[in-house]
Write a structure and sequence with these properties.
Layout lengths: L2 E4 L6 E4 L35 E3 L13 E5 L13 E3 L2 E5 L3 E6 L13 H18 L7 E8 L11 E7 L4 H17 L3 H12 L3 E4 L3 E4 L10 E5 L14 H19 L4 E6 L12 E6 L6 H6 L8 H14 L5
Antiparallel strand pairs: 1-2, 1-6, 3-4, 4-7, 5-6, 7-9, 8-9, 8-13, 10-11, 11-12, 12-14, 13-14
C-alpha cells in the first residue's frame, strides 16, 4: 500500500510508491492507444464516471457533448480514507490518503492552451477554482494543488489538454518554505512579502513580462530555472478559491498571452504550470500564484551537491526576451 513518509530533516512528505517502479507518473494517466486519445469523446465508458462536466443540459452525463469534464484520477496512488499518521520513534508515516482528479479541458485532443478560445479557457479556470474549493472544504485537507503538463520531457503521458488536481492531509514543502519566508517578513513589517515584492517589481519594471488590471506576469528575482515566470494577483489573496468571476477572464488572457510568448520565443518547450495556493482563504501572509516553468535544462551535479539551482538565463534577460517575442507576434495584452 502506498505510504507517505515525513522527512525528519525538513518539511517534505515523500510518497513511497514501489509498485509504480521507475515509470513516469502523471497522477495515474492512462497511456494512449495508438493514435487515439483515451480522453476523447466516445471513450467515456472506459473512464471513471465524471464528477462534474461543462455540457448542455440536454447532454447526458458520462457521454459525448461535453466541453470540459472532471474525473477521479484513474489508478492514482492516493485513496479517500482518513489519514492514519503514525509514529515510530523519530519516524512519522501514514497510508497515502487524499483525493486526485483529472480535468479534461477540451474535447479536441489537439487543442493547445494558446489556441483555446479565451471564453472557454475562462470556463476551465472557473472549473479548476470551484473544484479546488470543494476539495478544500474537507477540514482534514492541508494542501491542494493544480498541475498542468505539456510535453514528454515535462512529464506528460497524454497529449490531450488536461490538468490534475490533488488534495492531501499533509503540507507541501515548496508552499511551506514560501509561507515561512512570508510569515517572517510579516512579523517584522506587518505586510505581505508577495505584495511588497510585486510592488517593487512594478516600480522597477525590468522583470515584468506583462500585466493587466488584475494580474502581473513576472520573472522572479531568483528564478530557479530559465524563463520561469509567475502570474501573481495584484490584490492580496491567499487562496485561488478567492478569484472573483470578473477577474477570471483577465487571468485567462494573461496566461494565454504568456504561453503564446513562451511557445513563440522558445519553440514550444515542454512546460509545467503549477499553482501554489493555500487550501482556504484567510491567510494574511501567503499570496497564491501560478508558476509557469519551461523545461529547458536539467539539474546536474553542482545543483544537487550545493542544494541550490543553477540558472544560465538571468530573469532580466528572460523577461526582456519574452516581452520582445510577444510584441513581435502581437500577443501582448
Amino acid at each position: 500500500m502506498p505510504v507517505l513518509r515525513k522527512d525528519p530533516f525538513g518539511p517534505a512528505w515523500v510518497l513511497m510508491l514501489p509498485e509504480r517502479g521507475l515509470e513516469r507518473s502523471d497522477f495515474g494517466s492512462v497511456p494512449p492507444a495508438e493514435g487515439v486519445s483515451p480522453y476523447a469523446p466516445g471513450n467515456e465508458a472506459a473512464l471513471p464516471p465524471e464528477v462534474v462536466a461543462l455540457r448542455p443540459s440536454t447532454s447526458p452525463a458520462n457521454g459525448p457533448g461535453w466541453r470540459a469534464r472532471v474525473l477521479p484520477a484513474p489508478a492514482g496512488p492516493f485513496a479517500e480514507r482518513e489519514f492514519d499518521e503514525r509514529s515510530d520513534g523519530l519516524f512519522r508515516w501514514g497510508h497515502a490518503s487524499g483525493r486526485q482528479e483529472l480535468v479534461i479541458e477540451h474535447p479536441d485532443s489537439a487543442m493547445r492552451l494558446d489556441d483555446m478560445p479565451q471564453a472557454h479557457l475562462t470556463d476551465v479556470l472557473r472549473l479548476y477554482r470551484d473544484r479546488l474549493a470543494q476539495l478544500a472544504s474537507d477540514p482534514a485537507v492541508r494542501h491542494v494543488q493544480m498541475t498542468r503538463t505539456t510535453g514528454r520531457a515535462a512529464g506528460a503521458v497524454v497529449d490531450h489538454p488536461h490538468g490534475q488536481l490533488l488534495a492531501v492531509p499533509v503540507p507541501n514543502r515548496w508552499v511551506e518554505e514560501e509561507a515561512a519566508a512570508a510569515e517572517a517578513h510579516h512579523a517584522v513589517t506587518g505586510r505581505c512579502l508577495f505584495c511588497d515584492v510585486l510592488e517593487e517589481e512594478l516600480r522597477r519594471r525590468e522583470r515584468v513580462v506583462s500585466a493587466n488590471a488584475a494580474f502581473v506576469a513576472v520573472a522572479p528575482y531568483a528564478a530557479h530555472t530559465p524563463f520561469e515566470t509567475w502570474i501573481v494577483p495584484r490584490k492580496h489573496q491567499s487562496a485561488f478559491a478567492s478569484v472573483t468571476a470578473n477577474s477570471l477572464p483577465l487571468l485567462a488572457e494573461l496566461l494565454q498571452t504568456l504561453v503564446r510568448g513562451i511557445n513563440s520565443a522558445l519553440e514550444e518547450p515542454p512546460t509545467n504550470i503549477i499553482l501554489h495556493t493555500r487550501p482556504r482563504p484567510g491567510d494574511t501572509t501567503y499570496h497564491w500564484h501560478l508558476e509557469v516553468l519551461p523545461r529547458l535544462t536539467r539539474q546536474a551535479g553542482l545543483d544537487w551537491a550545493s542544494g541550490s539551482y543553477v540558472n544560465p538565463t538571468p530573469p532580466e534577460d528572460a523577461a526582456r526576451f519574452l516581452r520582445e517575442a510577444m510584441a513581435l507576434f502581437q500577443v501582448t495584452g
